[in-house]
Amino acid sequence: MKFENLPKIELHCHLDGSVRPETIIDIAKKEGISIPYYDIENIKKEVTAPSECKSLDEYLKRFEIPNLVMQSKESLRRITFELLEDSAKENVKYIEVRFAPLLHITKGLTLCEVIESVISGIKDAEDEYDIKGNVILSCMRFMSIDRAFEVVEAGRKYISKGVVAIDLCGSEGEGFCEKFIEPIKLAREYGYRVTIHAGETGIGKNVMEAVELLGAERIGHGVFIKDCIEAYNIVKDKGITLEMCPTSNIQTKAVDSFKNHPFYDFYNDGVKVTVNTDNRTVSDTNMTVECNVLLREFNITFEEYKQIYLNSVDAAFTDLETKGWLRKYI
Questions:
Q1: For the chain, how big is the Rg over CA atoms in Å?
Q2: What is the mean pLDDT of the chain?
Q3: What's 59's domain CATH number?
Q4: Structural domain range at position 255
Q5: Is this structure's pTM higher than 0.90?
Q6: What is each CA distance from 294 to 48, 241, 305, 322, 326, in whole angstroms?
Q7: Does residue 275 contact residue 261 with C-beta atoms inside 8 Å?
């Protein structure tokens, strides 16, 4: 089975974790931004996480340099376009790009300018390639609740015009959901869909709370429902889709080896799983690589891949017309 030839859908991809290293250097030079190195090999080392990090926090440090060059409208538009270009070239037909707008205002951009720039980059790529995309706005868990409200309010006018969902991400502590009940509730009232990073770092209970307290329709990662029967049952019974990212989970030590990743066990038990990159540059991966992991480790068949693809179609935060278009490919 040649995955490069098969259609793909990506529901969990961070913009700032997927910047081309050569683009980082180019923008830094053009905009006079100081970065540690200006040669491609050293920048690659700085922005790509090792195969095994000590923790999720070590993995997250790889985002610092990319964010330095994501502070202008032009750079955000270019980086978004390039992400979709890279995706389209490996037959990704639909992608949801997530990013935290508050990380891109250090040089004076407004939240609206940040969001508009990313939407423009998606539209540029849609005009040139056979791919469609939407935006998920992430709120950082370490920020205040007021900042989360800011993101929800700023993105409101772009709902169904490129923005489709709200997310919580960053370092994961136990019981984070309670803090964000009100801003996520408001987001749902405005029409945002909801996906929450949870259960990535050993706390399966966070997944249960993301569903029960925040109304999550999808969960980013969700690996540790394997150790929390209540969370596992709520995900399975409610048909919550897991956005799973095998390579990233190895790097952050969520899982100790690919063969021990719960992806296939979940799939065989009827849990709705999807396969994603998380971060193309930070994890040095793409969708073809991730799919080949499933083939190598679990020997998945075409029919199983087709079901995973259709899980992604069903879970995508997009309109029925686009979902019909995506189903035609497989």
A1: 18
A2: 96
A3: 3.20.20.140
A4: 3-327
A5: yes
A6: 22, 18, 9, 26, 21
A7: no
User: What is the per-residue pLDDT across 119-133, written as a single tens digit (0 to 9) for each?
Assistant: 999 999 999 999 999
Residue keyed to tokens 């569903």: 211
Q: What is the number of domains present in the chain?
A: 1
Secondary structure letter of residue 256 according to DSSP? S
Helices vs strands, H then E, count in the chain? 15, 8
Residue ranges for the known binding site for substrate are 14, 16, 170
Q: Which residues are annotated as a binding site?
A: 12, 14, 16, 170, 197, 278
**Residues paired with residue 138 on neighbouring β-strands, in sequence order:** 167
d(CA 99, CA 194): 14
Closest by CA to 274, choosing from 299, 297, 247, 307, is 307
Residues with active-site annotation: 200
Distance, CA of 118 to CA of 81 (rounded, Å):
8
End-to-end, the C-alpha distance of the chain in Å comes to 14
